[in-house]
Structure formats: C-alpha cells, structure tokens
Amino acid sequence: xxxxxxxxxxxxxxxxxxxxxxxxxxxxxRCPYCHxxxxxxxxxxxxxxxxxxxxxxxxxxxxxxxxxxxxxxEPLLQPDVKDFxxxxxxxxxxxxxxxxxxxxxxxxxxxxxxxLDYIAIDYKAPLRAYRKITGVVVKTQxxxxxxxxxxxxxxxxxxxxxxxxGLSTDSLIEMMMELCTLRVKSYFLQMFVPWxxxxxxxxxxxxxxxxxxxxxxxxxxRYGIRNINGTIF
Length: 233
Hints:
The chain is of the alpha/beta class. It has a domain at 3-165: Alpha-Beta Barrel (TIM Barrel). Helices cover 31% and strands 21% of the residues. The chain has an eight-stranded mixed sheet, with helices on one face. Helix 3 packs parallel to helix 5 and helix 6 runs parallel beside helix 7 (209-219). The longest helix has 14 residues, at 140-153. The chain is globular. The chain starts with a strand and ends in a 7-residue tail after the last strand.
C-alpha cells in the first residue's frame, strides 16, 4: 500500500460515523479541480506512511471510532488494498470506500469478499464528456458497471459530483437522468471549494442551485448539495 496521508479523526467523511481517513497515492484521472494533487502527481508524493503505523493506531483507538474511510487518489490502483482492508476489518471497524469507479473488476472482488460497508463513487460528468472532465480516456462502460455492482450489492452507497465551472446546470441535470436510468437512489452534489495553489477559474458560475435542488429532490431518495457556505441542503 502506498499511503500518502492519514487523518486520525473525522466527523464528516463517513456519514453518521466517527472515522479515520486513509489517503492512498496515485490516480488514473486528472480532474482539474482535484483537491489532493499531492496524491495524484508522482512528483509531489511524500514518503509513504507504513501500513503497520496505521493499523497500530487503529488498534489503540478501538471503541472510540466507528470506521475507516479509504480514499485517494484512487484506492483501487493499490494491488494490496484487499489485504489492507482485511487488516482494518480484523480490528472491528466499518470501512467506507471512495472510488472513481474505473476498475469494476477489483471493486467486484472487494464486494464479493464482504469487505466494504459504504461506497462513494465520484460521478465526474455526463458519460459523453468523461474524457473532457477527467483529462484521460475513460471506458465509460466501466463506470456504469461499477455503479451497477454497488447498487446490486445492497450496501450503503452514494454517487457524488463536484460542481465546478466545467459543468453547467444542464450537464448536471443530464447526469441525474443518467443515474436514474442506472437505478441510483442516492446522489449528492458538492460545490468546488478553492484551495491554496489551485486554479483561480474553477469556481462554478451561472449554476441554478434552486433548480438543481428541485431536480435532485424529485429524482433521488437520499440527496443533498454540500459545501454551500458550509451547509448541506
């Protein structure tokens, strides 16, 4: 495992749970709004944190936290992620897993092993525009397959999309329609939050929040718009 960061305490990354957050190094997408470039660009990688250090901390904190979030980067790029999750589960923690959905074969393997308790898939763009938004060639059938696997698994999940200036209101409605076709019932939008050193032109413009909220309420059972002045609607 190549672990580039570790947050020992979080109240917001695992809905309804107190968690720790593990950040893996490496990603196969190049989204312009990425909040963790130090986990994406190999030139910015820090020395990996030893797995033993993470597991030792979790062992000491048993009974004080509910779960562990594994995020990135893209965790499914880690060939030994299954063994890492097994080590976490042995200590009794729930596992929330964040992924871009590009590796359904690995995701299916983890699901069949019963290793995941909550999954968040980042739905980046309308399927027709995935290459434009992610900066790489993407097999969109893999994204669709990952979503199908998660829904059929019957574990807790959410799809989520970052709203930035590369996505219009019309594009976001198109994405909602695609997700409904895939039988998705849980969808969250999250506003881009500027960070030090990021491009200055990424903040969303001309986004009709009220219109989006009306549509997301109508189409999904679990829904919300995050990061609007620190509020979830």
